[in-house]
Amino acid sequence: MSKYFHSLSQTPHRLKSRMLATWTPDQEVNQVRLRSGADMKRKLRWFDLVSLGVGGMLGVGVFVTTGPVARDISGPAVFISYMVAGFSALLSSLCYTEFSVNVPVAGGAFSYLRVTFGEFIGYFGGANILLEYVLSNAAVARSFTEYTCTAFGVSDPNAWRIKVNGLENGYNELDFPAVALVLLLTLCLCHSTKESSMLNLVMTVFHVIFFGFVIIAGFSNGDGAKALVEPRGLTPYGVRGVVNGAAVVYFSYIGYDTVSTLAEEIQNPSFSLPVGIIGSVSVVSVLYCLMSLVLCLMVPYNEISKSASYAVAFRKIGWGWGGNVVGAGASLGIVASLLVAMLGQARYLCVIGRARLVPSWLAKVHPSTGTPLNATLFLGICTASIALFTDLEIVMELISLGTLCVFYLVANALIYRKYTLTGQNSPLHTLSFLALLSSSALAFSLWWKLNKPWWGLLLSLAITIAVTVFFQYHTSLLSSTANKNLLAPIPSTWSVPFMPWPTAISVFLNVFLTTTLKKLSFQRFAIWTCLVTLFYVLYGVHRTYEAEEMGRDRVEFVESHVTTSRVQPEMLDNVQMVVP
């Protein structure tokens, strides 16, 4: 205990030493990864990634968020909300793709932010990703119970839940089927990644066929004039409702970033990762738009059920058997999406454990299965605990806020890495551009939210375009000079086209969509931010300081890798930290 209090007394010095400390991509790939003991097994190919990405997103979005958003936020224009969110997600996926090809480790956003902006930003991004995964998985597991009820012909979606008097509303309906599903999938993921991928592939194929059935049946039985025009028109809540809906349905695109966390388990990652990430986002965006449109064609938006929306919609058009089929298909899709999301969350926690920001036992990879066993079990138990009692509406917007925050940070990190760390721009110039870009996006967003005159929107948009054009012009001049002096940056294996525009638009959209969320979401997000920062100050920074600066991990590190014969002890002398 006295040692811990001594460590706390050195907190300011340790924060100064560690908060901005980074690893190079080479160290992240070849040295930090070795802390897990055994390697993860490279068995996945590009079609595995596409199916994992599609399977991971489909069950979440359509079956969980579409009904509530169409009824209360966007109206029949919910399909436009999906278009806006899908475009933003596609831009973010480009950022993830370039990072994942050049830093092919299982840490996803955590690793990308850590090699760019330092330890604390990486930790903050990783903590938010984990929050997003655990909460969304719990919410999706509860939706599984609702749709399974309809598959068996039970009219009340809450029939299989146990209501407990005395608990606060929203936490008083215990969902044991959701808990059982989460624990069963946890055991499956502990066994093997490849077998889990094959199970997902089979479920995803059936799921896409089922989607085709719903889309064809919906268009065949829907009445566009009655459903889209008669109640209050296409946009009953106005353009703002469409945009606000886009921020909420962004929750639906959780899943494609899981593909990037599988980088250590992929054959030929430089080819498979771009195909898997971009391909899955594109396919899912089209399906989301069609599925949300047919829901509003079948039933007027103000009559859509918030729970098991599609199954109830089929019953309302007289297809009782169709409601059972939808319940079964939706349940299958939810299982597939939950499987993929739980696959990704464990890999995030595993890599954060390698960095010693959480207890190191969470980083261990089982030598026979090649899976992060401890991280999988720990997060499975956490997800099951939340799924037992927490209602979807309580977590949905908080999930979207955390997702948008991380995607915003990754887009900024890619610009900084591309133009400063591997380019010729000074840090001050790039950071100034990022600050102006975010400021103009925030000004536009607040002007929109406060319903101010249109000229303010145009001015903010003009400033955003102007600073991006100036930055592009300045960097092109530097590149021309570097080419003449034979100092051109080393090209990456895969690069986002038309830089910096896709990333700049991604930053703008993420800021804009974030500001459309409700005040309560920001309050809950602030509480979470305080908690994770406190954990970093009281535990994380001291553990990483002792591991990296004082060398207390050295004995463990050497013993582990002499045993596995994958690295020589003398190689450890070359490990150096980079502090910008």
From TrEMBL:
It is a multi-pass membrane protein. It comes from the Eukaryota. It comes from Camelina sativa. The gene is LOC104723397. Keywords: Membrane, Transmembrane, Transmembrane helix. Residues 494-543 form the Cationic amino acid transporter C-terminal domain. This is Cationic amino acid transporter 6, chloroplastic-like. Belongs to the amino acid-polyamine-organocation (APC) superfamily. Cationic amino acid transporter (CAT) (TC 2.A.3.3) family. It is found in: Membrane. The chain crosses the membrane at residues 46-65, 77-99, 111-131, 198-217, 277-301, 321-344, 365-388, 394-416, 428-448, 454-473, 494-513, 525-542.
